Amino acid sequence: MVDMETIVSLCKRRGFIFQSSEIYGGLGSTWDYGPLGVELKRNVKEAWWNTVVRQRGDMVGLDAAILMHPRVWEASGHVAGFADPMVDCRKCKQRFRADHLESLEKCPECGGDLTEARMFNLMFKTFMGPVEDEAAIVYLRPETAQGIFVNFENVRETMRKKLPFGIAQIGKAFRNEITPGNFTFRTREFEQMEIEFFVKPGEDEEWHQRWIQDRLEWYRQYGIQPEKLRLREHACDELAHYAKACTDIEYEFPFGWSELEGIANRTDFDLRQHAEYSGRDLTYFDDQTQERYFPYVIEPSAGADRATLAFLIDAYHEEQVRNEKRVVLRFHKALAPIKAAVMPLKRNEPRIVAIAKELADNLRKCMSAMYDDTGSIGRLYRRQDEIGTVWCLTVDFQSLEDQTVTVRDRDTMEQIRLPIAEVPARLKEQLDNAC
């Protein structure tokens, strides 16, 4: 298995992920997605959105604001209960989550004495308006779910939805984590891909199991090795205060098995809370039974950053080719940041360069493509393999004679010649079939 140091190095070297504010020494556990990283992450989010929204008739989308009325977080329980136990080392001054330590007496880093545990609220607090007082306090949202719950009635009425139906959202969330780490796995600023699926009480357990299997299959569909995925059901003492049940989809990262996505049965907790705190009727009228009730909610909640990291790690392969180490990222075609790279065999031959640049321009109209002439063909192949480019297209002297190019497949390294005029349509067809 590849180690995290190798992945972090590749991300920096090839433009996937950079340390935020690096020229100033960086800021703890914050990361910037570079030119290739932003394409990869956008593709992950697009694949998720296509699967859970566009391909389903029972799902719609939402993009709620990050800043919300502070009463939202009182109703949800975040103001009173969204906290972790924290301890400090009296010697080295490092800070730890108490529930992550084997001993609450000695520092795991230096052996110094630890302070007593105290609760630390994870929400980022700020002020709205010119006066910084209690009346102006607002929070950066710690999850995207509440934006969906407070818009339940708006969405139901405008979209004329009947149970069961879901609302999906991708957006930023913020948690002032005590001990972030493992690269982009646990950060203070992150992006969530969340679904709140509203069902009739009594049908919630069946829908919970259906969503667990659907979400597990999604990761497999987009290339994660099945043996690297597992399900872990939460024990009763792990469940959040709102949850009836929860199952995590875990991935075997280089640092161990950790959560990729949680699928929770939130019951009717959230709608009941917001109805009570807002004074609005958020019940659902069932035409068939002529009853009013609060729907139950199944919540598949995934991290876009964690998913991107998992797809990146899982795609990494090393192999020996002609006594040389070949590093290749075997992304699913739909996720690969660059689908096609066009390169001239001779960069100082104007006719070859002209054909290559025109082909790259035509490919850009239907997929992410690039023109690259910054090295020999062998070196260009190695660079494109290392960033996961699906196809490399070489324009050579034969191209001048018969208007064909060599198309090299990333995974098989097989090379075929295709008419230049047919290349965009042929590659686009393969991409469409892969999605």
Describe the structure concisely for a colleague.
By secondary structure, the protein is α+β, with helices and mostly antiparallel strands.
What are the defining features of this structure?
23 strands; 13 helices; 2 domains; 435 residues; 29% strand; Rossmann fold; globular; alpha+beta; 5-stranded mixed β-sheet; BirA Bifunctional Protein, domain 2; 7-stranded mixed β-sheet
Proper CATH architecture of the largest domain: 2-Layer Sandwich
- The total strand number stands at 23
- Shape descriptor: globular
Q: Mind telling me the CATH class of the largest domain? A: Alpha Beta
What is the number of domains? 2
Query: Would you identify the regions where 5 or more consecutive residues have pLDDT less than 50?
Result: none
Number of helices: 13
The residue-averaged pLDDT reads 93
Per the CATH scheme, the topology name of the largest domain is BirA Bifunctional Protein, domain 2
**Structural class category:** alpha+beta
Relative strand content: 25-35%
